[in-house]
UniProtKB/TrEMBL annotation:
Official protein name in the record: TonB-dependent receptor
Domain TonB-dependent receptor plug: 122-227
Residue ranges annotated for the TonB-dependent receptor-like beta-barrel domain, each copy included: 274-696
Family named by the database record: Belongs to the TonB-dependent receptor family.
Signal peptide start-end: 1-22
Keywords: Cell outer membrane, Membrane, Receptor, Signal, TonB box, Transmembrane, Transmembrane beta strand, Transport
Gene Ontology CC entries for this record: cell outer membrane
GO biological process: siderophore transmembrane transport
Bilayer topology annotation: Multi-pass membrane protein
Localization per record: Cell outer membrane
Organism: Solitalea longa
Gene3D superfamilies xref list: Carboxypeptidase-like, regulatory domain, TonB-dependent receptor, beta-barrel domain, TonB-dependent receptor, plug domain
Main location as per UniProt: membrane
């Protein structure tokens, strides 16, 4: 069946591609900023990565352009990307002069790709996409993108363990496995790697981060159930020659980001190195456990752009990450790894990534990626050793036919997973790694029915080697009555294929039998959202407003029953459903006097309904999903002094926490505000110094670990009798060691200092 689908799709590609023909025109002009010419501005058209550059006087010329409507993109480090649509006629010359403005954190005219898998301006995208540049993240610098994402409204980096500090990304309250993480549009970070894959991406390599809230499986396939985060890396040609960022904190956390570009023949390459070290054994809350994990991490990222011909380019990027992290009792060291005398959780990670694409004739593009993730870890005495490999290949094609912009693709994803638990063993104890084949095909049509209205429709078909056929449609409308106001109405379907083999298996013994009740169905979600955005310009700056009402209905959630039979793990789909609904608002005020304000707020109601023992639907609120939350960034630049003052923060309302029966700790967190202050002084020749305080209000959660003085639940110890049953005098409620009660960082107020240098 799949072979026939691929054969027919390939014939369709060839037939449509044959309709293209070669007539050309010329575009030329000058690029400036504040009436000064700009040199080395990168210019591309219709998504190509062919490197055209402006000369010293700001002039440029692009010949041999195909006739018709052409989208031109202008990019230069330190300036916001610009976007222009021109009509090119045969043997004609079009004059296009562009004025670039200095880079801001959030603008409506930025170029985005995540919503439609094509480069379009944010204003023209029928899918609401939030765009964030490093300008925002530099207002509160952190050593990893995982922490930086906490500055985005409605996005919550959630730590799932107070000992090893593993975490994932929640969007609009949905759990981390339902957020897809992409690097340059490639599905690099998934499954086993989700909790570690966002560490070690050099911040100096990041051009922007795009966030789509809501299902995106029609284009991106499995895992894009609750939303996606797409990390777009810089293009080598338009990057600074050298970019360094060195910083440290009062807790002894040291981070170094270094990136530089080279020209090798006609190709360009960008190399980024990140090193992070934290070795301070702090125990501020006196529970005998490290407040946060100690880490030693190094990564290297290398990206190439290679010209294939005059109008075609290829890109290739690789990344290697090594990390050694541990948390536990403060007197633990590597000699106690896996022992039962002093408790520690030690995780060693080796990770390699390869991704890129190359352009073929007739508007075809091949995308590819591969990642290898090896994890060697101990959780106390329990060893968890896992290996995951994911290979991805996709043939993509675009075509403009009148008012229709077509996009189609043939993706194929292969996943290999193996670990040392019973999850990958048969009853005869033979090892059986999980191997998943997921080929598919998708088609998208964006119909611009008028100057004001565009309609986007898409459909995807995937065939899973265990679940069979999966269809995911979506439909979106964009209406812009004028250049300032835009309304978007979107609906779509997301799915996530069954993935039983996660770190939960680390708590199991090899004697357990994995039992799957019924034929497990893929987890599904249906989403609808209504978005409104506007840009209000005035002589002193601009104000942008963006608001979204969202509703997601989630079914077929897969859970594991560990209690019914101590010899088995029983998996089944929930008979109920989950809901995520709410409202998110973002505002951006920017004034020419150097004063800027960004404020975001989210209200959401996230819960799950499932049948209880008597068959009635029971409502369970989602953990770590505050009904009210918000972010803010207030900045002021004193231009004569070249001094910037930034106050940033995140406010979270009460959220449900993982308490145990008869827990003495509160089932909800309190209101709290994580406020940060930073001063940045720009010096001559691209040098700047920054410093300040994080967690200015010194907020710390209470009692994050249950029974930290008995992490092994030792029989015959303080809380358990020699037969393993709870001691009625010291442990009447049968408490066991539990480090999952986590809702805020375990570090109080801390100072930081850093220096940056950019050589353009």
């Amino acid at each position: 069946m799949i072979r026939y689908i691929y054969f027919l799709a390939s014939l369709t590609f060839i037939f449509l591609a044959a309709s293209t023909y070669a007539q050309t025109g010329i575009v030329k002009g000058k690029i400036s900023s504040e009436k000064k010419p700009l040199e080395n501005v990168q210019i591309s058209y219709n998504g190509t990565k062919k490197a055209f550059f402006s000369s010293a006087d700001g002039s440029y010329l692009i010949d041999s352009l195909p006739i018709g409507k052409i989208k031109l993109y202008y990019s230069l480090f330190g300036y916001s990307d610009a976007f222009k649509i021109v009509e090119v006629k045969a043997n004609d010359t079009v004059i296009v002069n562009i004025n670039l403005i200095t880079e801001t954190t959030h603008q409506l005219n930025e170029v985005v790709v995540s919503g439609t898998m094509k480069e379009v301006s944010k204003l023209n995208s029928p899918i609401p996409v939030e765009v964030y540049t490093p300008t925002l993240f530099k207002k509160n610098p952190s050593p990893s993108i995982f922490e930086s994402l906490g500055m985005i409204n409605g996005v919550q980096p959630q730590l799932n363990c107070n000992v090893c500090n593993t975490g994932d990304i929640h969007i609009n309250g949905m759990e981390g496995p339902y957020t897809m993480i992409l690097i340059d549009g490639m599905p690099i970070v998934s499954s086993l790697a989700t909790v570690y894959g966002l560490s070690g991406i050099p911040n100096s390599m990041v051009k922007r981060i795009e966030v789509v809230k809501g299902p995106a499986s029609t284009l991106y396939g499995s895992e894009a159930v609750g939303g996606l985060v797409n990390i777009i890396t810089k293009e080598p040609a338009s990057s600074p020659r050298l970019n360094t960022d060195l910083s440290g904190t009062g807790y002894g956390e040291y981070n170094a980001d270094i990136a530089g570009k080279l020209k090798v023949g006609k190709s360009s390459t960008l190399v980024g190195i990140n090193y992070f070290n934290y070795s301070g054994r702090y125990d501020k809350n006196l529970d005998d456990f490290t407040d946060i994990t100690l880490q030693n991490r190094a990564s290297i990222f290398n990206k190439w752009t290679i010209p294939l011909s005059q109008n075609r380019m290829a890109s290739l990027a690789t990344r290697y990450v090594f990390e050694n992290r541990w948390g536990g009792q403060v007197n633990w060291d590597q000699n106690f790894r896996g022992s039962d005398s002093i408790y520690g959780e030690s995780i060693k990670t080796n990770r390699f990534e390869l991704l890129g694409n190359f352009e073929l004739p007739k508007q075809f593009v091949i995308d590819y990626s591969y990642n290898y993730h090896l994890q060697d870890s101990y959780y106390g005495v329990t060893k968890f050793y896992a290996n995951q490999q994911v290979a991805f290949l996709q043939l993509r094609w675009t075509k403009t036919l009148g008012k229709h912009e077509l996009l189609s693709g043939l993706p194929l994803r292969y996943t290999y997973y193996d670990d040392n638990t019973s999850g990958t063993q048969t009853l005869s104890r033979n090892n059986t790694p999980a191997k998943t084949f997921l080929p598919g095909i998708f088609l998208q049509d964006e119909w611009k029915s008028s100057e004001k209205l565009s309609i986007l429709a898409g459909l995807r078909y995937d065939h899973h080697n265990e679940h069979g056929s999966i269809f995911t449609p979506r439909l979106s409308f964009k209406y812009s009555p004028n250049n300032r106001n835009t309304f978007r109405l979107s609906s779509g379907n997301g799915y996530r294929v069954v993935n039983l083999f996660t770190e939960d298996h680390a708590a199991l013994t090899g004697a357990r039998e994995v039992v799957i009740n019924n034929d497990l169905l893929p987890e599904r979600s249906w989403n609808a959202n209504f978005n409104y955005s506007t840009l209000i310009s005035h002589r002193n700056g601009f104000i942008s407003l963006d608001g979204t009402i969202f509703y997601t209905y989630f079914t077929n959630k897969i859970t594991g029953d560990f209690l019914s039979d101590p010899q088995k793990i029983i998996y089944d789909n929930l008979s109920g459903y989950a809901i995520s609904k709410g409202l998110t608002l973002n505002t951006d005020f920017s004034f020419t006097n150097g004063f800027k304000v960004m404020i975001g707020a989210t209200y959401m109601d996230v819960y799950q309904k499932d049948k209880d023992a008597e068959g009635y639907l029971k409502t369970t609120p989602q953990l770590f999903a505050p009904k009210l939350s918000g972010t803010y960034a207030v900045s002021y630049t004193i231009n004569p002094w070249k001094l910037s003052i930034d106050i940033t923060g995140k406010v979270n309302g009460p959220m449900y926490l993982p308490v145990v029966p008869d827990d003495y700790r509160a089932e909800k967190s309190p209101w709290y505000n994580l406020m940060n202050l930073q001063l940045t002084k720009k010096l001559e020749n691209g040098l700047e110094i920054y410093g300040g305080c994080k967690n200015l209000l010194n907020f710390l959660p209470k009692n994050p670990i249950l029974h930290p003085d008995d992490p092994f639940n030792q029989p015959g110890g303080k809380y358990f009798l020699s037969n393993g049953s709870p001691n009625p005098s010291s442990n009447p409620y049968n408490y066991t060691f539990d480090p999952s009660y986590n809702y805020a960082p375990m570090q109080g107020i801390k100072g930081f200092l850093g220096v940056r240098y950019n050589l353009k």
